[in-house]
Amino acid sequence: MQQPETLPPISYLELSLSFVAILIFGTMAGVLVGSLVWLVFALMAGHHAMVLVLDSIKAQVPDKTGIMSALIYSITAMFYAAFFVTMWVVAKFGVNAPLKLRVAFHDWFGDRQFWWLALVIAPAVNLTSSLLLGAVAPQAADMPPTPTSLSGWLMLFAVAVVIAPICEEMLFRGWLFTALRTRKAFGATALITAGLFAFMHILSGAFYALLIFPVGLLLAYARERYGSIKPTIVIHGLFNASALFLAYVTAKP
Q1: Spatial separation of the C-alpha atoms in residues 176 and 197, rounded to whole Å
Q2: What gap in Å lies between CA 249 and CA 12, rounded to an integer?
Q3: Any long-range contacts for 106-114 (C-beta under 8 Å, 24+ apart)?
Q4: What angle do CA 207, 210, 212 make, to 5 degrees?
């Protein structure tokens, strides 16, 4: 396997402080930007439309206006953008290293095994996880809310297949994995990053987070093998794309 170390050993203190800083300031920035997005939607849609959206959220029924899904996906995209900017700021002024180097955004060359991982194994893992989730925790399988329009599906695709994989891989297989791998063996690094990656999804339910754990291990393997987060972004994106396709074909009219 390719060795991913491209930085000198990073102390646990530096890793902990930088990781916590990214989470705290990224969340604060995301809340601020998300609030601005909500305000813009409220001004554009009008008071009556937003009341309908709030009523649909309280009653847990589909929002026929389509505003709720657009609002959720827009705020989610802004949250990811806030985390990206926070990582760049911490890299430049906190740890004094280029973000590209810090998250291992290196060139890589795909091989046959990569395409098996991306096109066969990742979708198969997703299908298995979705079937288990639907059987054990069907309420979690309905998240995020199914869009009711083409524009909603396009926004969900942009967030789930493009934006989320890039930012999540930068944070977990990039920032965290790269630093840990300068001091720990691959096995420990994979378990820690996969565990934190799964914990990040705990809001969708404990069982859902448990199913995400092997996905984190798969992505850690790809990160170790190719020494870059570019292949993990592709695999992550295709994993989410297969989930989105499954949600689309099973969506109720």
Answers
A1: 10
A2: 45
A3: 106/6, 106/227, 106/228, 106/230, 107/228, 107/230, 108/226, 108/227, 108/228, 108/230, 108/231, 110/231, 113/225, 114/222, 114/226, 114/231
A4: 115
CA atoms within 13 A on the CB side of 121: 18
160 pLDDT higher than 80: yes
Collect all residues with Cβ–Cβ distance below 8 Å to 249 and sequence separation of at least 6: none
Report pLDDT for 138.
62
**Do residues 28 and 185 make contact, with C-beta atoms less than 8 angstroms apart?**
no
Pair of tokens at residue 129: 């996880």
pTM over 0.70: yes
**pLDDT tens readout for residues 172-203:** 999 999 999 999 999 999 999 999 999 998 87
- 53 vs 68: CA distance, rounded Å: 6
Q: Percent of the chain, pLDDT > 90?
A: 45
Rg (CA), the chain: 19
How sure is the predictor about 108, in pLDDT bands with cuts at 50, 70 and 90?
A: confident
Q: How far is CA 20 from the centre of its chain?
A: 17
C-alpha–C-alpha distance, residues 174 and 84, integer Å = 12
CA distance 118 to 101: 24
